[in-house]
Write a structure and sequence with these properties.
This protein has 146 residues and is α/β, with parallel strands linked by helices. The chain has helices at 14-25, 38-42, 54-75, 90-102, 119-124, 132-142, and strands at residues 2-8, 29-33, 78-82, 106-109, 127-129. The protein has a single domain (2-142), classed as Rossmann fold, CATH 3.40.50.450. It contains six helices and five strands. A five-stranded parallel beta sheet has the order 2-1-3-4-5, with helices on both faces. The chain is globular.
Amino acid sequence: MWQVYLSGEIHTDWRDQIISGADQQGLPVTFSSAVTDHEASDAAGDSLGKEASPFWRDHKSAKVNAIRTKTLIEQCDLAIIRFGDKYKQWNAAFDAGYCAALGTPYITLHDADIVHPLKEVDGSAMAWAQTPEQVVELLVYLTLQQ
């Protein structure tokens, strides 16, 4: 069973498309992800006490979120890292760098119009896909049972 971590933008249904496609193909894959509920992610550290400054609230929540992210990336066999065109996904770039440092293979998923700003991220990726369907095709190949 392959463990695949889905990282990146949270404003489209790309995760659902990949999970559905893998299910339809009957692939031996389980998926994990960062928290995709923006409000919940922003509030991850709130149970540790109220902060007067937005910086410290974000700082605390980022650390709590990092427990999940770090653990799931360390446990995965492959990461799919999605960059959308509407928002800057600094967290996704960080996840790609963490994968590269660990030697964990990752596939980037993004449109052609942001190839240039992602050249270093793509340079360490094992593949670049432009659609969730392409990711599913790669997963079909990678999980071939011979």
